[in-house]
Design a protein that fits this description.
InterPro entries: Glyas_Bleomycin-R_OHBP_Dase (IPR029068), MMCE/EMCE_epimerase (IPR051785), RmlC-like_jellyroll (IPR014710), RmlC_Cupin_sf (IPR011051), VOC_core (IPR037523). By secondary structure, the chain is mainly beta. It has five helices and 20 strands.
C-alpha cells in the first residue's frame, strides 16, 4: 500500500484548516483489491466529512476518538456518533459527519460487489504467468506524438483533467543516437511532457521536429491508427460536456450501443481533439457477455478520477 498526505483533502473536508486526511491507497491496478482506500482523518471542531453519493463506492466511517453528529440530509441535529461507533454508507447514499470536538475517523472505502465481481481475483490467488517480460509489474505509460506540445498539454489538463508532472529539456544529438535509440531521423529533436491521467495512467506527450517528418495523423484504418478511451459513468453528460469544448468534434450523432456479441450493452462515442487525435468515451453495464467464457476481466471502472499515487 502507499501512504500519502492527501493533497486533495480540501475536496473531502470542510472547516478548520488544521483538519487533516492521510490516505492509504489500495489501488486495484496494484493489489487487485476491492478496497479502494483506507483514510485516517483528523477533524477539528465543526469540520465536516462528506460522503460523495456520485462516487459509486461503499464507505465505513469508524470513530476512533471524539464525538460528532451524523446527518443524512437537511440541517437537523443529526445522530450522535462517539468513540467506537461505526457508520456504514451504501453506494449512492448521502451523508456527512460534523465534528463536535477534535475527532479521529478511519474511513474504509470499497467498491460495491456488483463492480467487484468484474475485477480480477485478489493477487495471492493469481497464478504466476508462464509468459511475458520477466519481472514486469505494470504498464508504466503510453505515449503520443502531437503537433504542438503546449496545446496538447493545455487540452489534457484543462479539458480532460490530467495533471502535468514535468517537462524535459529538448532532446537532440549531433551523432546517430536519435536513430539508434528512438528510431527517428538522426537530426530529429524532441520536446517531452509527462502527465498523470486519472488513477492508473501515465501519459507521455512528444513534439518532434525532423527533416523527414510526416505530419498527417493516421486514421483508425491506417497501420499505426490508434485512439485513447475514457470510461465514464454518464456518457450522455460526458458527451454534452465535450460538445461545449472549443475545437472538439464529436463523431456521429452521439453515443451508440452495442446490441450483441461479447460486449453487448457497451455504449460508446468517438471524438477528436482540436489537433485531430482520436479519442473515445465508453460506458459499460455491470456484466458483459464475455465474462461467461473466461475468468479474466477488463480492468475498471475505478471508483473515482484522481491523480493521487
Amino acid at each position: 500500500m502507499i501512504v500519502t498526505d492527501s493533497a486533495a483533502a480540501s475536496t473531502v473536508l470542510d472547516g478548520d484548516g488544521r483538519s487533516r486526511l492521510w490516505r492509504c491507497l489500495a489501488r486495484r491496478g496494484m493489489l487487485f483489491s476491492e478496497c479502494e482506500s483506507v483514510d485516517h482523518v483528523t477533524l477539528e471542531k465543526d469540520s465536516v466529512l462528506h460522503a460523495d453519493p456520485e462516487a459509486g463506492t461503499e464507505c465505513l466511517w469508524y470513530v476512533v476518538r471524539g464525538d460528532a453528529a451524523f446527518h443524512t440530509a437537511g440541517h437537523g441535529p443529526g445522530r450522535p456518533v462517539r468513540d467506537g461507533h461505526a457508520v456504514l454508507l451504501p453506494a449512492g447514499a448521502p451523508g456527512r459527519l460534523v465534528a463536535g470536538s477534535a475527532t479521529e475517523v478511519v474511513v474504509v472505502t470499497c467498491v460495491p460487489d456488483a463492480v467487484a465481481r468484474r475485477l480480477p481475483a485478489r493477487a495471492p490467488s493469481l497464478p504466476a504467468p508462464a509468459r511475458g517480460i520477466p519481472t514486469a509489474t505494470n504498464v508504466d505509460h503510453i505515449a503520443y506524438t502531437v503537433p504542438d506540445l503546449d496545446e496538447a498539454v493545455r487540452f489534457f489538463v484543462d479539458v480532460l483533467g490530467a495533471d502535468l508532472l514535468y517537462r524535459e529539456d529538448t532532446i537532440r544529438s549531433d551523432d546517430d543516437w536519435m536513430r539508434e535509440a528512438l528510431n527517428v531521423h538522426p537530426r530529429a529533436t524532441a520536446d517531452i511532457a509527462m502527465l498523470r491521467l486519472g488513477p492508473v495512467t501515465n501519459l507521455e506527450l512528444f513534439q518532434y521536429t525532423a527533416p523527414d517528418q510526416n505530419r498527417a495523423i493516421p486514421r483508425n484504418s491506417d497501420v499505426g491508427g490508434h485512439h485513447l478511451a475514457f470510461y465514464v459513468r454518464d456518457i450522455d453528460a460526458a458527451t454534452a460536456y465535450l460538445r461545449r469544448q472549443p475545437g472538439v468534434r464529436i463523431l456521429g450523432d452521439g453515443p451508440r450501443t452495442v446490441t450483441d456479441g461479447p460486449i453487448a450493452g457497451d455504449r460508446w462515442v468517438y471524438f477528436l481533439s482540436p489537433w485531430g487525435m482520436q479519442m473515445e468515451l465508453i460506458s459499460l453495464p455491470g456484466k458483459l457477455p464475455y465474462e461467461d467464457t473466461t475468468p479474466h476481466r477488463r480492468f475498471g471502472p475505478c471508483a473515482d478520477w484522481s491523480a493521487a499515487p
